[in-house]
Request: fold
Amino acid sequence: MSDHHHHHHDHSGPIAIGATAARVVVGLLTGIGVLVLIGTVWLWPSNQHVDIPLPMQNGGGGAVHTEAGTVTSQDLGPCGSLSNGRVFDDTPNAPRNTGYNCQRSLVAITSGPDEGKHTLFEIAPGPGQPDLRVGDDLRIVRQNDPGGTTIYSFDDYARGLPLTVIALVFVVVIVAVARWRGLRAVLGLGFAFGVLVVFLLPAMLDGKPAVPVALVSGALILYAVLYLAHGVNLRTSSALLGTLSAMVLAAVLSWVTLEVTHLTGLSEEQNANVATYLQHVSITGLLLAGFIIGSLGVLNDVTITQASAAFELAALDEQASRREIFAAAMRVGRDHIASTVYTLVLAYAGGALPLLLLFSVAGRSFRDVLTGDAVAIEISRSAVGGICLALSVPLTTVIAVLLARPFGHRPAPAPAARRSRHSKGANPPASQRRSANDTGRPARPAANRPRRRAAPTSAPIKSFDAFEDDATPPEGLPTRPPADGPRRTYPPHTDPPYSPRHSNPNRPRPTDDPDYGHRPGPY
Reply:
């Protein structure tokens, strides 16, 4: 009782802050979740009508309609057929001799109002032109000219079936390796795509502020993806809180970076088209949203790894202190940072390879290339992602350690006390152990000590020198001749004659026997 009372009142004992930390983390995540829901309602898009940009309109000013088609025949011949792009039933009209040849492809229309009919595509050879082959499945654009005649043109290759097969293989491999957790991760990925399509893009088209839209979208994705893939527990909660904090930091750093570097984003063709045809959409806000959403994947990877490492280290060593667990988890985190930074930078560099290739032959200085708007955007995106990645590791590790180790360093109980309280067959203390005289039997040997063998009951056989001259040796042993008497007769022996290499130096050698070593005998 005294030991138990002392354990609860010793000021040097464990500090119980785990329950408080858990309540704080759960309270913060609950409050953030409520704010995210309020922000979702406030920023929800109104789905207002937006005019279709001019490059994406058909001849009548509406949306472009695409149909399916298949190349049935192909040849190289004169260009200028009147059937080029027109609908016909059987064979195209003969081309006019224009002096140059084209790749002529006969395409069967397999969908839409002209299904079952044909059209002809004449494509002049040159860079960037499609190289159609017989059997290729195509997406062809259907539109009407000012006279009301239907015209078809090449749009792109049909990639629906190959992409479906690749996606199915992706899902099968993920589920086969990660089982149910992998399936939940795939479902979370689908939810993230839905948030981008249903909420983020329409909200930005409505002209809503980009940073709040990106933060709310990122928070919705993180809440769903993390809890769906890793379960609702303190480990996932610590990773979620660390990721949300790093995402807010990414938003602040992205805004500061764009303000300091004066990045416009107009060097990219897509941004220039948005600025031209969707003038109510902020290009700077679009860049900020791209920075924030782009950092979610790598931040999620690092934070969940750190939380898992901290919880596993705490479970492996119950006597480890918070400081020891934090130091061990940070060693894992540093390795992860070193490898992930390379991944982050190389991924952005891979996306900018065509641009870098053009700059390499432009004859501009290396400084001008790096500080140009197009390359500076990729550098800034990599730097912001790397900073948030590095800072998310210690932040998530601290949260996870406080949750994984509810108490501080818990000293191990004394071995004697632990054995006396919890072990049935353990040895009692020396003060409580009865002696052999009290029980009438030998005391049991202590644990982890080698047992001594009992002494043999019969006396060992003595050597010749151990017997007196008048003593009778045991039966079966030869007798040694007296020093001053006649030689005794020894029994016959079958051993080979004495050899020096067979001699035993440990045998007693009688110095008064002149024939010792020169006769057969049991020496």
Remarks:
- Confidence is low (pLDDT under 50) at residues 1-16, 416-426, 430-443, 461-470.
- Residues 20-42+176-404 form one domain.
- The first strand starts at residue 65 and ends at 78.
